[in-house]
Design a protein that fits this description.
The chain has 266 residues and is an alpha+beta fold. 37% of the residues lie in helices and 18% in strands. Strands 2-4-3 form a three-stranded antiparallel β-sheet. A three-stranded antiparallel β-sheet has the order 6-8-7. Strands 1-5 form a two-stranded antiparallel ribbon.
Length: 266
Amino acid sequence: MKTTAPAERDMQATTATGRDARTAVLTRAKRANVPLRKTFVQANKGAASRHGPLKDFVTGRDLRGLKAYLLIVAACSNGDNGWSTTHDSAVWARLMDIHETATDQSARTGAWRTLRRLEARGLVTCGREGTMITVTLLREDGSGDDYDRPVGDTEENRFLQIPTTFWTLGRDEQLDLPGLALFLVVAREKNWSTFPAEKAPEWYGWSADSHERGLKKLVALGYVERREHRTKAPLSPLGFTVAHQYQRTAATRPRKPRKTAPSASR
């Protein structure tokens, strides 16, 4: 049996993990929830195609890229640094967990390539100086337009919210690509909405099978709950039809802001 030397155990205990890095980034961002324009998931009604930029991550099997992009939105969308964030390439690799399965140089290269894929999709811009990489957000619809914080005042500015506990408690680590994509789909809609798999190719751009697998994963993890909804149908054999409705559970819903205590009068 292989044993770990005390010095090696000490090093493992004091070396930051990917979750540690993500938590540090979110702590610095000082927010309870992360806003993401709904057009990232699905274009608004009336568009030539309903597919949003999320489609390319799913069909391209780019789970690493999708996780990286969502974290960048979380890190940058408070606007403290002009919608940008800068880290050493080794830190970027740690944020993406690449360091766990690659040498230092390979991990750095993998992180840079991942960020460049996001740039090619019109979601960010990347700048590099030595080992330092700066990433700046662009608009979530992939248009390449400058980013601004969505405030919900127009159809184009409607947004969903992801609680920062999604990362700090490691819930993101449990999701595969269909699960993460469907998490965003469910988050985009009102509570107890239906998500018919046969509509997935038209509405989102991926297969019905991926759609169903994603919903099943979310229910199994307890991130989403499901119920049956019956609709009267006089001409159907049973006299009704059944559809499944979904909503996020309390564990993955946006967190309510804490109320600040009133200051004492002087």
